[in-house]
Amino acid sequence: MSTDYYALKLPEGQTTWQVPTGFGTTFQWEYDERRAALLTLYGKGKDKQWNAEHRIDWSLDVDPRRPDMPEYYIPIYGSKIWEAMAEPDRAELRHHMTAWLNSQFLHGEQGALVCTAKIVMSVPDIDAKFYGATQVMDEARHVEIYDRYLREKIEMAYPINPFLKTLLDQVLQDPRWDFTYLGMQIMIEGLALAAFALIRDFSDEGLAKQLNTYVMQDEARHVAFGRLALRDYYPHLTDAERAEREEFVVESSRLMYGRLMAREVWENLGIGWENVRDYVENSEMMGNFRKLLFSRIVPTVKDIGLWGPTVRSCFEQLGVIEFQDMVPDELFAADEQIALEMDARRREVDDAIARGADA
Fold this sequence. Notes:
Layout: H1 36-47, H2 52-55, H3 80-84, H4 87-122, H5 126-154, H6 162-173, H7 177-202, H8 206-233, H9 239-259, H10 263-268, H11 273-282, H12 284-292, H13 297-303, H14 309-317, H15 328-358
């Protein structure tokens, strides 16, 4: 995507981002050291590859200024500023919010692409390298999808949010392979899964429902990959090592909580962050929205064993501890089933059209 589509212009010469890394690359000569669960996931990763050019119906029309999502998902919905807005101004805000949100999906997917390539290089186990290779392909496809959606349908994009950039910077620079899993597979992709689910389940825009449903089918496997690897590794940590990782969970949770404010949009539209900050940070609606976005992270963090007092206290303060009893496998099975049902419905439509053409 040319940066000409960006609603905020990037500084001259800053169309790329160089991240210094110091991690080691590991080769594994014991090719028979494999775990059944990861090999099963690797098999699914091979079987579930798909072509976005064919599986997604790109002919669908998209009007990013139309209220395809319930309007209470606009962060300032219900505020005095929102109530005073004329419809053209609300339409422009919807356009920018759609562009901003999907831009963060795009940038996050490129982060996942780079992080997974790092996992393939650095993880010590051959079965994890096998599955990681399938995820690299998945992430490349996701970057392709969100780039095309923004470029052809939304016709606008935003630069990477500073909070997401900070978290990616931390994940990429840390030399320990498990931090890459923890930061990307568990934290960043866990939040993304919940955001994708909101669009899949509540949007009336057909193309957005399709691409988020199919991306979620992939992402559910990715989070499962992280869970399997870390559940095997984390029982062997020292208390100090475990405490360091729990502090990372807390820090990254707070970073992602801040990421959801969309400060760039308010400044770019001339509304002003200071004018909406109190409402965005404290409204009941936004509080409930932010809680939902942690619905995938909380049970997964508990599942991998990073459930000490520091983590539990953080989730209590954020108001998301209620998700601790959700079962990750059940959530991911539902994501898979919804994607398969969407495929079946589309085949029925295609078959009906073909029968009509033959009549």
